[in-house]
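Structure, all two chains, one model.
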Amino acid sequence: MVVKRLADLGERAAIRRIAEILTKGTNSKGIGDDCATIDLGKEYLLVTTDMMYQQTHIPAQMTPYQIGWFLVAINLSDIAAKGGIPLGLVLSFGLPKKISELFFKELIKGADACAVAFGTTIVGGDTKETQEITLCGTAFGTVKKDLFMSRTGAHPGDVVAVTGTLGKAGAGYYALKYRDSEKKLFKAFLEPVPKLKEGQLLAKQRSVTSSMDISDGLSASLYQLQEINNVGFEIKKNALPLASELCFFIDKNHGIDPYSIALHFGGDYELLVTMSVEAVEKAQKSLKTRGVNLTVIGTVTKKKNIVLLNGKNKRILENKGYEHFKKHNF
Amino acid sequence: MVVKRLADLGERAAIRRIAEILTKGTNSKGIGDDCATIDLGKEYLLVTTDMMYQQTHIPAQMTPYQIGWFLVAINLSDIAAKGGIPLGLVLSFGLPKKISELFFKELIKGADACAVAFGTTIVGGDTKETQEITLCGTAFGTVKKDLFMSRTGAHPGDVVAVTGTLGKAGAGYYALKYRDSEKKLFKAFLEPVPKLKEGQLLAKQRSVTSSMDISDGLSASLYQLQEINNVGFEIKKNALPLASELCFFIDKNHGIDPYSIALHFGGDYELLVTMSVEAVEKAQKSLKTRGVNLTVIGTVTKKKNIVLLNGKNKRILENKGYEHFKKHNF
């Protein structure tokens, strides 16, 4: 008898197994979305959880303060993607005995600082002794039902847009890798900013048809959105809002393609949305007055593939995300 | 310079450090209670999180189904202790690659079964690859503000009471240890029952002055309640509602004192409450009609120690909980 291991099963199949087994709630939905939603009457309670494991999810260069910040930021990013307002977080710290008190205090300080920076607090948690640092954060928030932005709802003809710029985190990663001294580059990689204001502003437009964060990278996120909505995308390479930080690599000639970083690297924690063509200009103007750039990067198509347009050239967009960023939420 | 490690600091001190660093929310409280509470207007949102780590928190005899059940049960027990109604759970699974698909499916089935058995569902989660099984559950629920049972509020003169019986889990542990075949004994240890009905019935009495679950063991829980309320307790040994399962050990003469198990072992997930003397009889009758036993085991005293009365003998109750059950929530 062949005993299947998780390693053979693959993560997508594992999540399908979970979805098959779990009893569906009458007041909840959200398996496969950034957050679960629970019906609270006029609002949804949004809940999301993310685990970080030292060996696979924590870059060696991260300070304990940044680890704490990161844990909170990645959870708040899921609340942001649904247009939510955070209510609080609980954090579980699995820590080895040998961890110093200073490390521990900095970890808590970083987590607290990120929560407070985005208008919320850490309300509780758990500590356990483990052999490797294993951290688990759960964020919760609320969103008015009519403002909730689901992952499903993209229609052929809609535009595809992203907030902010692409490739900041990738630029930071390579700056670290090449031991560059540009500290502000590292920061985008190690201390990501959850786009809560952006999500709330987009939700108020009431014209977003689907939304998710792009923590896994733009291409991986597009493939997730494509599958769940049973549509396709045409993405214009020249329209991608490359982060200015990427110029650094063009100058230094490390042989890295900035478009590849922008498309595949991940860690930018921007929001990827689809919305009706008619609504996009108004949304862009409205967000601009609040300091938020929303860039149209393509369109939703009936044809169920993802095409990258480069002038007259067309090719199928590769689906690759960097594994250390990949989320396997269910 | 002496670098303090978490191991030197101790868990209570670690939790004090966390509480000192964290920014307090204006709409939340609960550090040091079973659940955090968030103000939702007429209700509190209750949130609690618990982490289980293979090497220290998962007995080798636990089946994957039981591990899943346990993860959900320990979180729901915290909702129960506050009189709450569960809304849902999110679970994070940190699992090694070598785990079989069968193990994984049984884990999910056990978690789902426990949630459904207590009227709720698992609404989302996260999966990550780790080296040791590391699981994190977060439960949330609601409670009407006037029904919320805090850990603080015990007054000298109040009675101390527990739901159900004491020592079931300990009996199961020793039955496993001595390789006894009494499967029903194991179940109380490996598949604990969160006392949600009990908590909700107690809350409706509106006479409970403080409440917590006794997952850490009765003595450890009494010491936590004593410290937080700045009171003392007199506990009557003969009043302790020993689980019938403990008789097994008296008969078999393993040299184990059943009272010691009932007082210190933990894992029973019953509720420990204080309430006014006047209200207790009514509460007992009311709970009895719903099949719940509430046993008065002592009184709250002004003197800030915990005394165990055995007929005419008085001694200070030892503060010992079994480490594998100890919770270090904040």
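Residues 64-81 of chain B form the longest helix (18 residues).
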